[in-house]
Amino acid sequence: MGGDNVLTVGILGGMGPMATVDLFAKIVECTPAACDQDHIKIIVYNNPQIPSRIEAILNGSRSPAGALIDSARFLENAGANLLVMPCNTAHYWYQDIQAAITIKLINMIENTANAVASRENSGDIVLFASAGTVQTALYQKAFLAKNISLLIPKPDEQQIISLAITAAKAGQLENNPYLGQLDEIMFAYQQAGANSFIGGCTEIPLLFKYSSRECCRIDPTRLLAQEVVRQALL
């Protein structure tokens, strides 16, 4: 399966580092390999010094656009010919990044919308994402283009989600102090008829595995990994 015709994938990472590791691991898991040589060549640029995407959107602080573009160019110059970026909020600058490079950057959010739209019936879907991703309506617009409406958490619920994301970035996963409250939010939406939840921040799928709720968890990181494998092995 492997060979010179297989694309080299570049991961524009560091937002955060554990989410970068998660995508790398899922690409490996999703690759139909029988030996080392069957796997995809991957260049990881873990750049945690990229300015906060959320602070830039919510508070007008330093834009990460320049650092994102520099990181994408670094990967292209290193030999990558397909890029992915495991940070949903950073896709607010997707067009700027794509315009600055000559290789393809897979849009994580559009990829998720395409995957969900291909299913027969996902029912009501709730978006668990950063406040920046919610405010910029990145997921809402992508899903609306597929004639799918998303349920957006109320402000008090969003505050819990944001706190859970911050704690996850600090390394608190199984011991995340907001896991119980996340489960309560999910339960309330399930009682109202929803049963699908999008992990629209790359830290959320890291927390999903510790949730006690039985529901459909939509993992954009895994969906991105599957698309990477599909495109890299064409």
3D architecture notes:
With 234 residues, this protein is of the alpha/beta class. It folds into two domains: 9-107 and 222-233, Rossmann fold (3-Layer(aba) Sandwich); 109-219, Rossmann fold. The protein has helices at 17-30, 53-59, 65-78, 94-100, 108-117, 131-135, 138-144, 155-169, 179-191, 204-208, 220-232; strands spanning 8-13, 41-46, 82-84, 104-105, 125-128, 150-151, 196-199, 216-218. The strands form two sheets. Strands 2-1-3-4 form a four-stranded parallel β-sheet, sandwiched between helices. Strands 6-5-7-8 form a four-stranded parallel β-sheet. α4 links the parallel β3 and β4 (104-105). α1 packs across α11, α3 runs parallel beside α4 and α8 packs antiparallel against α9. It is globular. The chain starts with 7 loop residues before the first strand and ends with a helix. The mean pLDDT is 96. Keywords: Isomerase. Pfam families: Asp_Glu_race. Belongs to the aspartate/glutamate racemases family. This is Aspartate racemase. One of its GO terms (molecular function) is amino-acid racemase activity.
Structure keywords:
four-stranded parallel β-sheet; Rossmann fold; 47% helix; 234 residues; alpha/beta
Count of DSSP strands: 8
How many discrete domains? Answer: 2
The CATH architecture category of the largest domain equals: 3-Layer(aba) Sandwich
What string, H for helix and E for strand, traces the elements in order? EHEHHEHEHEHHEHHEHEH
| Overall spatial form | globular
Distance between the termini: 10 Å
**Share of residues in strands:** 5-15%
Oligomer: single chain
